[in-house]
Design a protein that fits this description.
By secondary structure, this protein is of the alpha/beta class. The protein is about 45% helix and about 20% strand. It is built from 15 helices and 14 strands. Strands 1-2-10-7-8-9 form a six-stranded mixed β-sheet, with helices on both faces. The chain has a four-stranded parallel β-sheet with strand order 5-4-3-6, with helices on both faces. Helix 4 links the parallel strand 3 and strand 4. Helix 2 packs parallel to helix 4. The longest helix has 17 residues. The protein is elongated. The chain starts with a helix and ends with a strand.
Length: about 400
C-alpha cells in the first residue's frame, strides 16, 4: 500500500543519488497559461526512472539482493536498474526489445548490466523477463507496477510542489502509469485542488482506453516513436491509482510530439525523447485548458537516439510550417525557374532543393513538374507564397508535406 510517508522516505533515500531537477519557466513555447518544465531529462541516466528503480532496490532484503536482479525495459528503467544494482554490488540482467534505441542499450551495458535483446516490443521483453525470473529465482524489478517504484517516482511530485507552491496543473507522460501514479498521489494528498493530467501517444493509448471502459485493456499493437510510453497494458496498481488520482488523460499525435521536441530544442535548449515531450505537446496544442493557469510539464527523459532525432527534427519543421514542398506545373522554357524563385524570395522564403521532372506521362511533352523544397517561417508564409505564385499565373499541382 502506497503512503505519503513512503514517498517522503524515498526522497530521503534518493537525496544523495538522484538530482533535484530544475523547474524552469518556458514562456516561448506558445502555450496558453504560464508553463514551467520539470527537467527530468537532466536527471542522472537522463530519465526519472532512476528514482523508482533505486528506491525499490534499496528496500530489498539481503536474500533478494543475493539472488540477483532481472528487469525489463524499453531503455530508461533499464539504466536506472543497472546503475542502482551496480552501486549496491548486485548483478543485474535487463531484457529489452530488440528495437530499443542503440544509445539506451549501450548505456545500460556501460552501467554494468547484462542485456538480453528480445524480439518484439516492451510486452514481449516483459514476458521473457518473467520467464527468466522463474528459471533463475532472481528478484524482478517491475518498471511501473510496484509500490516502491511508484513511491520513488512520486518524489517528483514533492519537488514540484516545493518549487512552485501555487501550481494549478501538472502534465505527466503515461505509459504503464508508474510516473503518473506516484506524482498524482503525492500532489493530491498534499494539494488536492491541483489538476493532474496524463498524456499518452495516440498510437499507444492503453491507459486512456482502460479508463474509458473502467477496466484494464490490452492493445493489440502500439505504434509510436515515443518508445518509453509504448505499453500495451497498464499495470494493476497503476490503473487503479490513475483512475483515482489523475483528473484526465489526453493523447497527442506523432507530429505533435515531434513539434514539441523541436520547440524544446529551439526555445529551451533542451533535448527530450518522444515520451518526455508528450506533456509539452499537450500544452502546445491545447489538449488541456491551461488559460490563466500555472502549469508544469514533466519532461520525463532525454534519451533519444540521434538517428531518430534528425528525423524528428525534420518532421517537427514540417509540422510547424518551417519546411514545405511545392510542385508546380510549368511550360518547359527558359526563365520559368527564375520567375518562381523571385516570387519565393520576395515573400521571404528560401529554396533549398530543386527538381525538374520531365518524365511524368500525365503532362504535355513540352511541360515539366518543378518540385521545390522550401525553408519558411510558418504556415502563414507558406500560404502567402502559394497565393503569390497562383496570382502570377503559375499552376500549383500539389503541396506535399
Amino acid at each position: 500500500m502506497l503512503t505519503l510517508d513512503k514517498i517522503y522516505h524515498a526522497a530521503f533515500i534518493l537525496k544523495d543519488v538522484a538530482r533535484r531537477t530544475d523547474l524552469i519557466a518556458a514562456p516561448g513555447l506558445g502555450c496558453k497559461g504560464e508553463v514551467y518544465l520539470k527537467t527530468e531529462n537532466l536527471q542522472v541516466t537522463g530519465s526519472f526512472k532512476l528514482r523508482g528503480a533505486y528506491y525499490k532496490i534499496s528496500q530489498l532484503t539481503e536474500d533478494e539482493k543475493a539472488r540477483g536482479i532481472v528487469a525489463c525495459s524499453a531503455g530508461n528503467h533499464a539504466q536506472g536498474v543497472a546503475l542502482a544494482a551496480t552501486k549496491n554490488g548486485i548483478p543485474s540482467t535487463i531484457c529489452m526489445p530488440d528495437g530499443a534505441p542503440i544509445s539506451k542499450v549501450e548505456a545500460t551495458k556501460r552501467l554494468g548490466a547484462t542485456v538480453k535483446l528480445v524480439k518484439g516490443g516492451y510486452d514481449d521483453a516483459y514476458e521473457y523477463a518473467c520467464k527468466l525470473q522463474a528459471e533463475t529465482g532472481a528478484t524482478f524489478i517491475h518498471p511501473f507496477d510496484d509500490d516502491e517504484v511508484i513511491a520513488g517516482q512520486g518524489t517528483i511530485g514533492l519537488e514540484i510542489l516545493d518549487q512552485l507552491s501555487d501550481v494549478d496543473a501538472v502534465l505527466v507522460p503515461i505509459g504503464g502509469g508508474g510516473l503518473a501514479s506516484g506524482v498524482a498521489f503525492a500532489i493530491k494528498k498534499l494539494r488536492p485542488e491541483v489538476k493532474v493530467y496524463g498524456v499518452q501517444a495516440a498510437g499507444a493509448p492503453s491507459m486512456l482506453n482502460s479508463l474509458q471502459t473502467h477496466s484494464q485493456q490490452t492493445l493489440e499493437l502500439v505504434s509510436t516513436f515515443a518508445d518509453g510510453i509504448a505499453v500495451k497494458r497498464p499495470g494493476n496498481t497503476t490503473f487503479n491509482m490513475v483512475e483515482q488520482y489523475v483528473d484526465a488523460v489526453v493523447t497527442v499525435s506523432e507530429d505533435e510530439i515531434a513539434a514539441a521536441i523541436l520547440a524544446l530544442i529551439e526555445k529551451q535548449k533542451l533535448i527530450a525523447e518522444g515520451a518526455g515531450a508528450v506533456g509539452v505537446a499537450a500544452a502546445m496544442f491545447h489538449k488541456v485548458d491551461l488559460a490563466g493557469k500555472k502549469a508544469v510539464c514533466l519532461v520525463s527523459g532525454g534519451n533519444i537516439d540521434v538517428n531518430i532525432l534528425s528525423r524528428v527534427i525534420t518532421r517537427g519543421l514540417v509540422m510547424s510550417g518551417r519546411n514545405a514542398n511545392l510542385m508546380i506545373a510549368l511550360e518547359d522554357k527558359p526563365g520559368q525557374l527564375q520567375g518562381v524563385s523571385e516570387i519565393i524570395s520576395h515573400c521571404g522564403g528560401n529554396v533549398v532543393s530543386v527538381h525538374h521532372d520531365r518524365g511524368d506521362t500525365s503532362m504535355a511533352i513540352t511541360s515539366c513538374f518543378l518540385k521545390l523544397g522550401l525553408e519558411t517561417r510558418d504556415h502563414t508564409q507558406i500560404e502567402e507564397i502559394r497565393q503569390a505564385l497562383t496570382e502570377a499565373g503559375f499552376h500549383l499541382v500539389s503541396e506535399r508535406v
